[in-house]
Amino acid sequence: ADDVTLQLKWVTQAQFAGYYVAKDKGFYEEEGLNVTILPGGPDIAPTQVIAGGGADVMIDWMPSALAAREKGLPLVNIAQPFKSSGMMLTCLKETGVTGPEDFKGKTLGVWFFGNEYPFLSWMATLGIPTTGGADGVEVLKQGFNVDPLLQKQAACISTMTYNEYWQVIDAGISPDDLVTFKYQDEGVATMEDGLYVLEGNLQDQAFEDKMVRFVRASMKGWKWAEENPDEAAMIVLDNDETGAQTETHQKRMMGEIAKLTAGSNGALDPADYERTVATLLAGGSDPVISKAPEGAWTHQITDKALQ
Amino acid sequence: MKDTVATARPVIEAKGLGLTFQTNDGPVHALTDVNLTIGKGEFVSFIGPSGCGKTTFLRCIAALEHPTQGALTVNGTSPDAARQARAYGYVFQAAGLYPWRTIAGNVKLPLEIMGYSKAEQNERVRKVLSLVDLDGFGKKFPWQLSGGMQQRASIARALAFDADILLMDEPFGALDEIVRDRLNEELLKLWAATGKTIGFVTHSIPEAVYLSTRIVVMSPRPGRITDVIESTLPKERPLEIRDSREFIEIAHRVREGLRAGHGDEV
Amino acid sequence: MKDTVATARPVIEAKGLGLTFQTNDGPVHALTDVNLTIGKGEFVSFIGPSGCGKTTFLRCIAALEHPTQGALTVNGTSPDAARQARAYGYVFQAAGLYPWRTIAGNVKLPLEIMGYSKAEQNERVRKVLSLVDLDGFGKKFPWQLSGGMQQRASIARALAFDADILLMDEPFGALDEIVRDRLNEELLKLWAATGKTIGFVTHSIPEAVYLSTRIVVMSPRPGRITDVIESTLPKERPLEIRDSREFIEIAHRVREGLRAGHGDEV
Amino acid sequence: MTWLWGAILFWLGAWGLNAWAANQPFARTRAGKLAIPALFGVTLLVLWEGIVRGLDVPGVILPAPSVIWGTITTSVPTLWQDFVQTILKGGLSGYVIGCGAAIATAIAIDRSPFLQKGLLPVGNFVAALPIVGIAPILVMWFGFDWQSKAAVVVVMVFFPVLVNTVAGLAATDRMQRDLMATYSASYWQTLMKLRLPAAMPFIFNGLKIATTLALIGAIVAEFFGSPIKGMGFRISTAVGQLALDMVWAEIAVAALAGSAFYGLVALIEKGVTFWHPSQRARS
Amino acid sequence: MRSVLPILAVLLAIVAVWYIAAIRMNSTWTYDQAARAETEVSFAEVVVDTMAQERPVLPAPHQVAVGLWEGLFGQKFTSKRSLVYHGWITLSATLVGFAIGTGLGILLAVGIVHNRAMDLSVMPWAIASQTIPILAIAPMVIVVLASVGVTGLLPKAVISAYLSFFPVVVGMVKGLRSPDRMQLDLLKTYNASRWAAFWKLRLPASMPYLFASLKVSMAASLVGAIVGELPAGATSGLGARLLSGSYYGQTIQIWAALFAAAILAAGLVIVIGAIEKVALRRMGMVR
Ligand SMILES: Nc1ncnc2c1ncn2[C@@H]1O[C@H](COP(=O)(O)OP(=O)(O)OP(=O)(O)O)[C@@H](O)[C@H]1O
Ligand SMILES: Nc1ncnc2c1ncn2[C@@H]1O[C@H](COP(=O)(O)OP(=O)(O)OP(=O)(O)O)[C@@H](O)[C@H]1O
Ligand SMILES: Cc1ncc(C[n+]2csc(CCO)c2C)c(N)n1
Ligand SMILES: [Mg+2]
Ligand SMILES: [Mg+2]
């Protein structure tokens, strides 16, 4: 069997159910692959891991991958299992935020470490400076969890539809007390959770072949997970080495994830790509990327995998 | 050993005193059944082979060590109470100067603690440093002085303030004969002038005889008093007295006493 | 001061020796213009007021301090070379025992370093401990011994191995007269039997006279040799010799020499 | 490859030079004491540059020193802003509060063997709590700004200084204490005149260890939430952006500031504990 | 027994303060929730609520105790939810790191004391090395080591060694230099080799310093191992528990992991303390 190492963007959770299912159900094995899944974490930059040769393929958000490409790391999107973006800004109603125009003068929690680009683009589109003051927003580097909102250190925080949002709810705040802004709805959505490899490797026949089989099996896993969300969640749970994840949370997460993967067969929709690039280029003074990238995606793999 | 009673008001009274150290290989009987009364204004020397408990006895008097048997009173109270009344000046067997203080600073230490005025402090430091012949060394640090000079500094430290009882553990051991003679004279003068009660450990028989009103001879294992020799010398003692018959006689008695104590082991 | 030449093959030769310490308040001239030759098998005592440079001179000989002026040779080579040839046994002014070694362990230390066999080590330790009257204390730690006992242990340590030159800095300062007499006798015996060259610092005039073939009198500020007195006593010296006319005469000369050196400051 | 071999040759040569220079009288001068470690540092940098260039290490893994230097010179304002936020505000204030509190506590519990016996093991235990666990909690308690970083630093430096101070206060020898006893000196007099001076070498030991801890603490705490400035913030975001040159620029600033801080404390130590054998031996 | 009493008293005081703090800090949330639900709460209700929140700002002591108990004994030791399992993972990295770190530290200290060139050049850089935020370079270390094929225990141990060598260097340098002039001079008169001076004087004299450093360094090793676990993909070990607890706002889980780590560290330090006592007693250094 051929060895493939996959670097995840975050810790083991239902966000990556498709890959765990494919591994657990033997889809990879059927394709003659021996896949190692490396969980991520707050300090792991998947881009760095792949640059260092620690992985063959990785999962990342497109803004981060494109930024890395501009930094000289030739990443290429070979597949896009996630159709929609799950990112939102969640605000406490009591702070008086009802629409984006109310952000001014407020403190907003934002994830950094390569996850800040969608937010920066959005603010640039809105024309709100992120340097604080009465006309701008005060930005906090948000840690791992939703505490800043619960402790009222921030008016709004970044959340994912499938994860942090529910943590807020679980903490005891009812949805009625919250106002949420989905990036998807605000027209500033960027592509999340795509599969990326190094451009140079694609020239290699054997590698290309490996990736074709990998994507095929992975998509099979995703579709299985969409159909059997609860079982998929249990598979994820089995693979969680920290033993910290809970069943309810993962099952719910799987349900939300299924909504995001729905509509993708694995091939990147060029229209989505263009929209993402346009959003990123719209950034004002501090653009994430300075010019439209070339060759940042390919159907080379999916074309073969999905025929 | 019968108690020896001093004529003057007793300042130090030991009755059946004993002290045993517990060590990793068994108890060490440093002192046993020590009976001694020292009157006010007496000058008592302790002499005996090394390890016989002289230091230990002095430490008991100063409440630095606590006897395991018997009773000990100082000025009619417990040694601890006497210590709190600042009754003691103590010169240790080693100089024990604080390395972070200059010589003058070391001598000043007790004065600071006892709250003398700045001017008084400086005046006294000057005086005692000159007494022990260390003028000009006030600004040096201890490690820049020779062994004998350090010892003299520590004597100066004990003399700088007015304690009723002066306990000196081989203070002149590291000094040459000339300086020793001079300091012996000075000490006698000081004693005569102030009426202090002095307990003095020495290894020199002539020194003990020259200085003391009484000489206590001790012997080791277990440390005990084997002889107490009253000096019949007058209070006024020029250095030449050391050539007198009486002096030589007393010295001889002390030597005999010492030899007897040694008998069992040398 | 003119050089004093010894008759035997010279072991230690100092010519115009000087040593100046740099301290925070100016230079201290510990030694100036010291000229001295010590022949093989001599027993030379150094006497002088404290701070006159006796320790410093001994340290120069042992290559522990390096003279800033003049020349010094030991066995015809530099002191450093002599040290490398393990020519010295040194007894320091303070005991300086290693606190983590027992008394026996401390005495064994030089033997271990010089590579004696285990059996030989034990044998020698036993012998020298008994020589200094510390049998039975081998297993105690230094802080469990009295000051004088520690000093004796440090003497034992220096005697445990066979150095040609023995340098002793007030080795008997903390001992009582009886033990001191005994050790004086032992030292003389050892010297007679081994033909070692001995440099000996003391404050006791009788001790210096009793032991030495020559007595070097020093005076301070700056440290220099003011007198060198040859002893005319025979090599064979019973303790009673101290009552002889000759002895008393020499002692008198030494005292005069000392007093003269003191003149400028006492 | 020439780069690599060149660097290794340079390293060998410089090491030889250093070994020689260290035994020259020059090494005892003030200039020598700066030049020799500096030469050592330069050697390391040259070796680094040579390895990166010689082995073609990608810049996103390890940038060459020359590249890092370029970033430092072009981002001085950012670096300065981060330095003020993290080191001056978070680190220094935490250091002062933490060390002050530790010394005060050591003195406070010194009188009571009961408290010492009780507090030291418990303190020992608290000190063993890893910062990575404490930092998020303190950020939750004290907010995102520098106050929470200072709190982390306080927690980190407190115990080493406490332990050293307690050990130092016990470090007097018997005769020194007995002397005070014969004067019947009061507790405070003994403390001020004997035990604190005698404790200084130990206290400074703690204070020196605390300097590096303070820096690490302040920086690491920023990983768990911060305003968008500060060295820890910059490092963690720069890693995500693969701007490794910026990461190393910040690390260089941290190392420089840390060494300077340590050097300052060591200098003060030298002045205060001039009498200690370990200081005297080398002067 | 005599030494347990004071500890108990202090613990009791801490627990009391802790409870009061828990009530104060957690009550904000209770009041906020009541306000959102537009109800009134009495103080008694608040106290009860603050003792049993799911995501308390400060968990009450008994909540942590329960969390710890569950984690330690609530399941099989081999379970991924067992703190014993995670503790063991961390412990093994800690011990390997500690061994590497102290070994390196002692070697460096010996070099610094015996070689002027090292004394002058290494020390400043050893200090500088400790000002590098380990959390920042730990991921890079892991990545770089992984790219040359080193994974698993060793990368964590390397990070742990990196943190633990420094206290040993500082303490040992001080300790090896602690002999005073007379002690050194004595050996000079024997013309003892540097080797003998090291074994017979410097090393024994440095023992108290070494043990003091070892305690600090052991704690540092543990922190290093935990830090090393964060970027190792938050898989297993106490660090991973801390992280995932933190990620999901499971305050109680964080505190339980935190206490498990501290217990581990305290245990290790106690072991060193015991060895110290025996060693120093045999060396006659405790009176
Ligand atoms: N390390 C030093 N630094 C500065 N001055 C010193 C140092 N060592 C000794 N001295 C000075 O050198 C002089 C001679 O000292 P030395 O120790 O040789 O005297 P000594 O004759 O042995 O005296 P003693 O009989 O008191 O031991 C003294 O004035 C002393 O202050
Ligand atoms: N802390 C201690 N622990 C155990 N034994 C001790 C301790 N202090 C003293 N001793 C023992 O007590 C005995 C008496 O000691 P002490 O110091 O009083 O003798 P000394 O008469 O002053 O002798 P020296 O003239 O040598 O100073 C000795 O045998 C000594 O070994
Ligand atoms: C330090 C830190 N960086 C990024 C994220 C955000 N993040 C990265 S991947 C992912 C998927 C969702 O669960 C999320 C939320 C975070 N939480 N903490
Ligand atoms: Mg004594
Ligand atoms: Mg001397």
From TrEMBL, chains B, C:
GO terms for molecular function: ATP binding. The keyword Nuclease does not apply. SMART domains: AAA. Keywords: ATP-binding, Nucleotide-binding, Transport. InterPro entries: AAA+_ATPase, ABC_transporter-like_ATP-bd, ABC_transporter-like_CS, ABC_transporter_ATP-bind, P-loop_NTPase. Residues 12-245 form the ABC transporter domain. It comes from the Bacteria. Belongs to the ABC transporter superfamily. This is ABC transporter ATP-binding protein. It comes from Albidovulum marisflavi.
TrEMBL record, chain D:
It comes from Albidovulum marisflavi. It is found in: Cell membrane. Its main location: membrane. It is a multi-pass membrane protein. This is ABC transporter permease. Keywords: Cell membrane, Membrane, Transmembrane, Transmembrane helix, Transport. It holds the Pfam family BPD_transp_1. The chain crosses the membrane at residues 31-48, 92-110, 122-144, 150-171, 202-226, 246-268.
Automatic annotation (TrEMBL), chain E:
It is found in: Cell membrane. Its main location: membrane. PROSITE patterns: ABC_TM1. It comes from the Bacteria. InterPro entries: MetI-like, MetI-like_sf. Keywords: Cell membrane, Membrane, Transmembrane, Transmembrane helix, Transport. It is a multi-pass membrane protein. The lineage of its organism: Bacteria, Pseudomonadati, Pseudomonadota, Alphaproteobacteria, Rhodobacterales. CDD domains: TM_PBP2. The chain crosses the membrane at residues 88-113, 125-147, 209-232, 252-275. Pfam families: BPD_transp_1 (PF00528). Residues 83-276 form the ABC transmembrane type-1 domain. Belongs to the binding-protein-dependent transport system permease family. This is ABC transporter permease.
